[in-house]
Design brief:
The protein is mainly alpha-helical. It is 38% helix and 5% strand.
Length: 241
């Protein structure tokens, strides 16, 4: 699809508890994107099975799981000061930032070492991003990854959405969550859940609980929780920075 929308949104409605799902948003042609990637990016970046960081001067890190990852994530790669500054500022490689970086890297991140003039054509950028998306979080495994997510519509009644969570109880319950999800928000192959909007957290957990989101571990974990416990966790994680 040329002229793609930058975000996949969870629709929040009121009424009876029903669910619907749609296919992931189309951002471009991945086959054409592969050709463009090899022409414009492949001399400095690797992606796919066996991808490694570049070692030549000016080469970059591998691009597996780039979507929704914090910028400058790899401890074993030497980033420019501009990229490190963007990390300290909390930048994430979401779809909008990736598109802006492909448009002109130095406009988005001053001081970056990436010597690339950029892609003026939005369709070209969409195709490259569609190609890279194939090597990021799969919609079957991690539905939270916004650019690859199956669009979920979770309709919860106001009696669920209006529950006020107890953050202290949420902290107690969070021990199981933080065996996988990091409290500091760092991405270690598992999506960060710190700082989530409470309503988004509640919707996601109910989607797992009703086995709409297809991650078996999360389905099991959510299935144990009451509405009040989900609300408590949502309040706790929303307050974390």
């Amino acid at each position: 699809m040329r002229g793609w929308a930058p975000l996949v949104l969870l629709a929040v409605l009121t009424g009876s508890a029903t669910f619907a799902e749609e296919t992931a948003i189309g951002i471009g042609d991945p086959a054409r994107g592969e050709r463009l990637f090899q022409q414009s990016c492949g001399s400095c970046h690797q992606v796919g099975d066996g991808a490694t960081h570049g070692t030549d001067e000016g080469a970059g890190p591998h691009l597996n799981n780039i979507f929704d990852r914090k910028i400058a994530q790899f401890a074993d790669f030497s980033y420019s000061e501009g990229i490190n500054r963007a990390r300290r500022d909390g930048m994430v490689w979401n779809l909008g930032n990736l598109d802006a970086y492909l448009t002109n890297p130095k406009l988005l991140v001053s001081g970056t070492n990436m010597n690339f003039r950029g892609m003026e054509d939005a369709g070209d950028r969409g195709d490259v991003l569609a190609f890279l998306r194939q090597f990021s979080s799969s919609p079957q495994d991690i539905p939270e990854a916004a650019p690859t997510a199956l669009k979920q519509e979770v309709v919860l009644g106001p009696e669920v959405l209006s529950i006020v969570g107890d953050p202290d109880y949420g902290e107690y319950l969070a021990a199981e969550c933080t065996t996988c999800h990091r409290r500091d928000g760092d991405y270690q192959g598992i999506p960060a859940i710190t700082g989530w909007y409470e309503e988004d957290f509640v919707l996601a957990m109910h989607a797992y609980k009703r086995q709409i989101r297809p991650h078996p571990v999360m389905q099991m974990m959510a299935g144990r929780l009451s509405d009040e416990e989900i609300a408590a966790l949502a309040t706790y994680f929303a307050a974390l920075e």
